[in-house]
Design goal:
This protein is mainly beta. It is 9% helix and 35% strand. The chain is built from five helices and 46 strands. Strands 39, 41, 44, 45 and 46 form a five-stranded mixed sheet that branches. The N terminus is likely disordered.
Length: 763
């Protein structure tokens, strides 16, 4: 038989052996393997300056002649791990951390350098990172919070803390933790292996100390020296238990109050001390003995846990009571700490004071019928003086509460009577205030509310519940329903309303049917109504109630006659529409409107023609002539002035706009523009004006209105004085123009014209 034995060397290389048994001899043969390795180990956090040596890879196919080339692949190949292609030495190029990655899986393969062919298949191997103690323990919380009842026994569980170590727990003691307490003795202890914190001291009293801070340490390397450690803090609070009985600070208390204090008012407060808190400090006070037990009462203020002493009845000046206080929530396990109750003596003194009158009731309620006659008594108010019961009291009504002066009270006996008639429908309740004052000291005054209820009597008749808009169709049939009516009554009977509906007299057109449920139906008695004969009917309806005495009223129902369609729907109730439909057709109405429109158009046209028949002239008479006087203070530039007015425009009227109209008249119509014929060059403006005047006089297209323009004195202030021919000599020979040559070059052309002309005439 054949036995295969796997031997693992200390360097991690595996050897494969064949174990053969031949007779009595044991023959061992080494089986050839392509690789002589399987896994490597590497320490983390390497701090050397050179690459860290991992191991050597060598194939049996490598004959050592340098033809083998080793290639590495897998996790970290080429970055973290490098292999020497010739020797197969494997190195780590980086500093590794086991807590980041504990192992790397790689593949190695040998190739022939010459042929490039693999010498053997690739083989996988693992590089494991050996752990070192480089991580300190860390608690899951930086601060823990815990609570435990006070007075707990030793060993009572408080809290469990937990720490973790990132180092390898399967290798050495790097991750083996031990817990210990650094702060908090002798009150607390911690279990080294579990981290459970327990009570280490008995009778820990919350009233002495409430809060504790405990520091817990977790140390690796099993707590040995050189191990790393971490700490956390545990805030422990002792919760309250009812272990403190209530105690009064004094054995007796003295309270005082005024005798005028109202029943139920507070006399004073006392308080017992209890070191507990919450419901364990809740207390209950009660009076257990004393001569004031029947007149005083004590209650517990739930907020302040004080005993509030109240006055139940005042009959003496001094009261003495014994007050007991106990816890409301007692714990039997602490009953040995003493009785959880205490007592104290309370003395209450009533101080004398002049008190106002006291009424026999806190308020009064009276009833009266609304038809009660004036002067009848409604009720009586009673009050007395608590200082001396025989002192007289004076009564009065506060007039602000009875502005209508409906009631009166007798100032001596307190009897309230009626002054005016009452009406329940106006007001059902009257709230007044009655004042009672001492006659000897009117400032001592008390008031009491008096409520007077006015009882109903049947003094109002029923009437329609609303205003009805009733109509009947012209084509209605007999017995047809046209309206359902109901009634209201301001009275309020005890058994409810019951109305009866009837007609005041027999009506030939309509009838009424009582539904006996406070409603009634209005029916037609005949068929066929006509709006021309009667457009509106008035139907008197008598409504009676059933109370005593019976009240009734007559309400009139207005019924209009309307035109309806075949289904009974109203179309029109207007009498005007009836007349219109009866007398005129639609065609006649249209013809009348057209005639009115034509007449209006004729009137408007006649008015327009009348206004255009005659046009008022701008110049009514010849005397209405106004001079146009224009003042020029500029002598002109002479022939060198190219900006001056060119008279050639007047001599050549063809340059004037052809559509320019006369502005001195209101034109009646537009005439075609008549262009005047050109005329020869004129030597003088006068000749030009005369020729144009004659042309316009003979023009048949010119309106028959003369236009008169007067040219007179053109203004003063010019150094050339007046150039007008007005007021000059009769003939031109009287003028001398030689002075024009002295005016300068601006008047040279003018001087040549007149001086030359004068010379020609003289020759």
């Amino acid at each position: 038989y054949c036995i295969f034995i796997l031997l693992e060397r200390s360097d991690g290389n595996l050897f494969h052996w064949n174990h053969l048994m031949k007779g009595d001899k044991l023959v061992l043969h080494r089986s050839k393997r392509d690789w002589m390795w399987r896994q490597f180990f590497l320490s983390e956090e390497y701090t050397g300056s050179n690459y860290q040596y991992v191991g050597k890879l060598r194939s049996d196919k490598d004959r050592g002649d340098g033809t083998a080339r080793y290639v590495l692949s897998g996790e970290g190949a080429g970055t973290i791990f490098r292999i020497d292609e010739k020797s197969g030495d494997l190195h780590a190029t980086q500093r590794l951390d086991r807590e980041e990655k504990a192992s790397y899986t790689l593949q190695a393969q040998a190739f022939n350098k010459i042929t490039g062919l693999p010498l053997e298949p690739a083989t996988e191997f693992i590089v494991k990172i050996h752990d070192i103690n480089d991580n300190e323990p860390k608690f899951t919380k930086a601060v823990y919070t815990a609570s435990v009842p006070e007075m707990s026994d030793i060993g009572t569980f408080v809290i469990e803390v937990n720490a973790t170590d990132a180092d390898d727990a399967t290798y050495g003691n790097s991750a083996k933790l031990v817990y210990s307490i650094l702060q908090g003795q002798p009150y607390f202890s911690v279990e080294p292996e579990t981290g459970i914190v327990r009570i280490a001291l008995s009778n820990m009293d919350r009233e002495v100390r409430k809060e504790y801070q405990v520091v817990i340490q977790a140390k690796d390397m099993a707590g040995q020296m050189g191990g790393l450690s971490g700490t956390t803090m545990v805030n422990v609070t002792l919760t309250d238990v009812n272990d403190s009985p209530p105690r009064f600070a004094y054995s007796s208390y003295h309270l005082s109050t005024y005798e005028s204090a109202e029943i139920g008012s507070t006399v004073g407060r006392i308080k017992a001390n209890d070191g507990d808190e919450g419901e364990n400090a809740e207390m209950k006070y009660r009076i257990v003995d004393g001569d004031g037990k029947e007149y005083l009462d004590i209650i517990t203020d739930e907020t302040t846990q004080e005993g509030v002493m109240k006055l139940d009845y005042e009959s003496k000046r001094v009261y003495t009571v014994k007050v007991e206080v106990t816890n409301t929530h007692q714990d039997p396990s602490f009953s040995d700490l003493g009785p959880f109750l205490d007592t104290a003596i309370v003395k209450v003194t009533a101080k004398d004071v002049d008190e106002p009158p006291v009424f026999s009731r806190p308020q009064y309620v009276f009833e009266v019928n609304e038809d009660t006659p004036k002067g009848i008594a409604v009720g009586t108010i009673a009050a007395w003086d608590p200082d001396a019961t025989h002192y007289p009291i004076q009564y009065a009504i506060d007039q602000h509460t009875d502005p209508e002066r409906l009631y009166h009270i007798d100032p001596k006996n307190g009897s309230i009577t009626i002054l005016k008639s009452l009406d329940r429908e106006v007001s059902k309740w009257h709230n007044i205030s009655v004042l009672a004052s001492e006659i000897n000291n009117p400032h001592q005054r008390s008031r009491v509310p008096v409520l007077i209820k006015v009882l109903d009597v049947n003094d109002n008749a029923p009437e329609f519940a609303m205003i009805y808009e009733t109509f009947v169709c012209e084509n209605v049939k007999a017995g047809q329903l046209i309206q359902t009516i109901s009634a209201i009554d301001t009275d309020d009977p005890l058994v409810g309303h019951k109305f009866v509906f009837t007609l005041s007299s027999m009506n030939p057109n309509f009838t009424i049917f009582d539904n006996e449920d406070n409603t009634a139906r209005i029916l037609t008695r005949r068929s066929g109504f006509n709006r021309r004969e009667m457009s509106v009917y008035y139907l008197p309806v008598v409504i009676s109630d059933s109370d005593y005495p019976i009240q009734s009223s007559t309400s009139t129902l207005t019924i209009r006659v309307c035109s309806c369609d075949a289904t009974g729907n109203m179309r029109s109730c207007s009498v005007d529409a009836l007349l219109l439909s009866a007398g005129l057709s639609t065609g006649a109405l249209v013809a009348i409107l057209l005639c009115i429109l034509i007449l209006l158009m004729i009137v408007v046209l006649f008015s327009a023609l009348k206004k255009q028949r005659r046009k008022e002239p701008l110049i009514i008479s010849k005397e209405d002539v106004r001079d146009n006087v224009v003042s020029y203070n500029d002598e002109g530039g002479g022939e060198e002035d190219t900006q001056a007015f060119d008279i050639g425009t007047l001599r050549h009227p063809e340059v004037i706009e052809s559509n320019k109209l006369r502005r001195d008249i209101i034109p009646e119509m537009l005439f075609p523009y008549h262009r005047p014929s050109p005329m020869k060059e004129c030597a003088d403006v006068r000749d030009f004006i005369i020729s144009r005047l004659q042309e316009n006089d003979t023009d048949p297209f010119t309106p028959p209105y003369d236009s008169l323009a007067t040219y007179a004195y053109e203004g003063n202030g010019s150094i050339a004085e007046s150039l007008s021919s007005l007021e000059s000599s009769v003939t031109e020979g009287d003028h001398e123009y030689d002075y024009l040559s002295n005016w300068g070059p601006q008047f040279k052309k003018l001087a040549d014209m007149y001086i030359g002309k004068d010379t020609g005439v003289a020759n």
